[in-house]
Amino acid sequence: MVLSKVDFETYKNLVSQMTIIVEKLPDILGGEKSKTYLVLFENNMELRPTGGFIGSYGLLTFDNGRLSDFAISDVYSADGQLNGHVEPPAPIRQYLGEANWWLRDSNWDPDFPTSAKRAEWFLDKEMDKQVDGVVSIDLYPIKDFLEVSGSIFLSDYNMDITSNNLYEKVQSEVQDNFFPGTHKKASFLTALSRTILDEIGNLSSSQKISVLKLIYESLEQRHVQLFLHATDVQKSISALNWDGSVFIPSCDGDCFSDLAGIVEANVGVNKSNYFVKRSAEVDINIKGGEINKTLTLTLQNSANTNLGASGRYKSYVRLLVPENSTNINVTSTFGQNYQVLTPEITDSKGRKEIGIITEVLGGENKKLIFSWTNKTDGVLNQYGFYFRKQAGIDGFPVSIKVTTPVKVLGSNPVFASQCSKSPRNAPLQGGYEYCYNATLVRDLFARILF
Q1: CATH class entry, domain 255-449
Q2: Per-residue pLDDT averaged across 193-213, rounded?
């Protein structure tokens, strides 16, 4: 009954926050004053912390409730205007080999509001442009739109774009024979964007409903993220978890609120994420005033070995955990090889980031194993586990096992009470086991009551 009441309050809050946003739409769309938003086109085939490499950006302007301008530019054209030196985060300098920080790498912080503000700062310094907010979008919503609309024809390129060939065409048009200063990338994305906007008007009523649904799912699954200067609207966006922020949910009473979030950053200067799949296993053991956790991330690279460096996945991987985490260890396994790694551990805004560099060649599988501990105050009556999904990645298999010293009274989502061959609900040597398996397409908020 408790969980049902909590769920009711959650849906009630969802409706309330969306109502606020709808009421503010006239202002968002420039009803009284023209509004311009920075749109970051993040190519998730080259994964970065907030979705993907920022290869292009757009300035989206609304006036009197109508779209008045949408100008798309190549990010290198803007970065070429930056005067002076901006020191990059250490991993960008060390692993990406960049001595300077630019708009194209501004999304290094997985917390989207932080990266959005940084992107605005670079836009101001490079192009003397100020905006009213930032929107990020990766390739998944475009692919989903094409599944609804069917193929679209780019007349300037004499080319049909479908959901099946989108990645191939984007790669060919924006990456092949690219050099800084060319307008090739911006021209193609402009043609694609304008054709999609025109196509929306030609959709049937049922197709338009499907588009609204995919927009909602894109926000829920972090393929689109929003950061607006209108504080009342942004507060509602944040409450809906559409702002891409990193946080640890609050937890009242004798409760421990936990966080785990995997953040990958492709630093190989290629589009190898097209070939990369992942899965995660989380083992949580609650006992004696401690919570000991192990997270195993498996990375599988299906790239053909003939691709060489262009198929190699070189990634700076971070695990986000609570700031009071201790006993941190990281190892990796590849085939019969086992290696103890020395992580780079930093404190950042109420969390710890455990970072390591890794490479997965074409045809290889590699496991990264993180372990850490948190202390608890007294006996718990509730445990909350927040598994944060990174922007820019598709759903991936997640398996969670929780071992507790006492029987669980309830959980949401429901954890199976039999993880092994032991009799149902029988105490094991380490306590009672409960398991949950799912495909992580959005953030997971799990609650367990004791």
Answers
A1: mainly beta
A2: 92
The neighbour count for residue 235, using CB atoms within 10 Å, is: 14
Write out the two tokens for 402: 């929780």
Structure tokens at 222: 């972090």
Sheet with 432-440: list strands edge to edge: 337-341, 326-334, 365-375, 290-301, 276-287, 396-404, 432-440
Q: Which H or E element spans position 382?
A: strand 382-388
* Predicted structure pTM score: 0.93
Structure tokens at 331: 């190892």
The 10 Å Cβ neighbour count of residue 193 is: 18
Per-domain boundaries in the chain? 2-239, 255-449
* Cβ-count burial 24-48 (b if 16+ within 10 Å, e if not): beebbebbeeebbbbbbbbbbbbbb
Q: Which residue has the tokens 């397409």?
A: 441
Whether residue 351 contacts residue 321, with contact meaning beta carbons closer than 8 Å, is answered with yes
pLDDT, tens digit, 9 for 90 and up, residues 294-333: 999 999 999 999 999 999 999 999 999 999 999 999 999 9
Better pLDDT: 333 or 419: 333
Q: Judging by DSSP bridges, how do beta strands 66-74 and 337-341 pair with one another? A: unpaired
Burial 244-270 (b: 16+ CB within 10 A, else e): bbbbbeebeeebbbbbbbbbbbbbbeb
Q: What is the DSSP string of 247-285?
A: ------SSEEEEEEEEEEEE-SSS-GGGGEEEEEEEEEE
Q: What gap in Å lies between CA 37 and CA 228, rounded to an integer? A: 8
The residue among 81, 110, 29 whose CA lies nearest residue 392 is 110
Residue 56's H or E segment, with its range, is strand 53-63
CATH 3.90.1690 is held by the domain 2-239: no
Residue in 257, 13, 224 with CA at minimum distance from that of residue 139: 224
Q: Rounded distance, CA 426 to CA 432, Å?
A: 7
Three-class secondary structure of residue 322 per DSSP: strand
pLDDT at 202 (0 to 100):
92
Convert the pLDDT of each residue in 22-62 to its tens digit. Answer: 888 888 999 889 999 999 999 999 999 999 999 999 999 99
> Cβ contacts of residue 350 below 8 Å, gap of 6+?
247, 248, 323
CA dihedral 300→306→307→309, nearest 10 degrees, is 80
Residue ranges of the alpha helices (H) in 24-100? 25-28, 75-79, 90-91
